[in-house]
Specification:
alpha/beta; eight-stranded mixed sheet; 12% strand; globular
């Protein structure tokens, strides 16, 4: 029995070392290999016809600024389509008044962003664009983003992901700054490292440009709460792995209410962890069988848990291994865990030095440990109770 425990502990420590290594190499590549983004400076003058698709569920309060950002970036023949999906407010009226083309969907048996996207694609199929760009209804779109996404997508014939950032509300608690930094690590630094290594990135749900002919082969009509992850994986399996375009930028804001922020984190992290457990092992095996480096890179990247969870698992495994070694067990698991923790701490610190000091000053670093420990309650809640599976608007009040 003791031998089995020792071997099991070693296996757990070794498995955790894999996502830590992936995170470490992505961050180091982003810091040391990143060059200026020249993907849109090609001199290519052709600009294909674009449809910007905005799925919206009860978003009347924040939809108008999003439309105002998008409309000036459109050219003749382009379309801006808002899908008012199962709305109980005046989202459709607000979108129409702002100058967008609007369709409504009412089906309480099929709730989810994937269903809204599928409805929008069906509507667009009557007058097919060359490229569809998906923007969430609560996002701000930086000037030039539509052109940059379109150009890269047209030149490469591959899906393209913009830099998707979230910001903390004004005068928010310090834990929001920690969350904003963690978001930068996930959605900016890690994709930047993959780009530097000539590898694809994951899709992030908003700021996504997709060639029309590739959309037809993907089933989007689902209530999957991490539809962006699923879409990126499906496209990669089909041989069209997404590319990262950091010069195209979309931003949104964390909810200001504690309840809204907690619900949002639970939805994201539950979906992500579920994909790791259900999909990652199969995709890694498929990538190895096909000798597909793009799929292998995407699968490994997806297998990296949320930063707080990865830190908690690494520390917890190391603590158990340390206690076990005191009672005469093999120290191999302790050595692996200690190495993993050192690599994790080093990579995050280097990432903070280059990409995080403007939002997380040195005096705020003391909040990192309490932020991670507070996540224990979130993970316990996910384990015991779960969160709603359907698409729901985040409470931002």
């Amino acid at each position: 029995m003791l031998v089995i425990f020792s071997h099991l502990l070693l296996v757990v420590a070794a498995l955790l070392a894999i996502p830590v290594a992936v995170l470490f190499f992505e961050i180091i590549a982003a810091i040391t290999l990143t060059r200026e983004d020249r993907s849109v400076r090609s001199g290519h003058n052709y600009r294909p016809r674009v449809a910007v698709l905005v799925p919206a569920h009860n978003e009347s309060a924040g939809l108008q600024p999003t439309i105002a950002d998008i409309k000036p970036q459109l050219r003749g023949g382009d379309r801006l389509l808002v899908v008012a999906d199962n709305c109980s407010d005046d989202t459709a009226a607000v979108a129409a008044a702002a100058g967008a083309e609007v369709i409504e969907r009412k089906d309480l048996c099929k709730i989810g962003k994937g269903y809204a996207l599928d409805w929008g694609f069906r509507h667009l199929s009557a007058d097919v664009p060359e490229i569809v760009i998906i923007i969430d209804a609560d996002c701000r779109v930086a000037v030039g983003t539509i052109d940059r996404l379109t150009t890269v997508c047209a030149l490469t014939h591959r899906p393209v992901q913009a830099l998707d950032l979230m910001t903390a509300p004004d005068q928010s608690p310090i834990n929001y700054q920690v969350a904003e930094f963690a978001w930068r690590v996930k959605n900016w630094v890690r994709p930047l490292g993959l780009k530097a290594l000539n590898l694809p990135c994951q899709l992030m749900g908003t700021g996504m440009a997709l060639p029309w002919e590739q959309i037809c082969s993907i089933n989007l009509a689902s209530g999957q709460i991490v539809e962006d992850l699923k879409l990126g994986l499906d496209l990669t399996v089909a041989g069209r792995a997404p590319l990262f375009c950091p010069s195209a930028v979309v931003t949104s804001q964390f909810p200001s209410s504690n309840e809204g922020a907690s619900t949002q984190r639970q939805r994201w992290e539950r979906g992500h962890v579920g994909m790791i457990l259900k999909v990652a092992p199969r995709l890694i095996c498929l990538a190895l069988a096909r000798r597909n480096m793009d799929l292998f890179a995407i699968a490994l990247d997806m297998a990296v848990p949320p930063l707080s969870l990865l830190a908690l698992l690494t520390i917890g495994t190391g603590t158990i291994a340390a206690v076990a070694s005191l009672f005469g067990f093999s120290s191999a698991a302790l050595i692996i865990s200690a190495t993993s923790f050192t690599a994790l701490l080093t990579s995050v610190f280097l990432c903070w030095l280059k990409y995080g000091r403007d939002i997380l000053p040195p005096r705020a670093l003391v909040a990192v440990a309490p932020f991670i420990l507070a996540k224990l309650h979130l993970y316990r809640r996910l384990l015991l109770r779960g969160v709603p599976q359907h698409w729901s608007r985040t409470d931002r009040n």
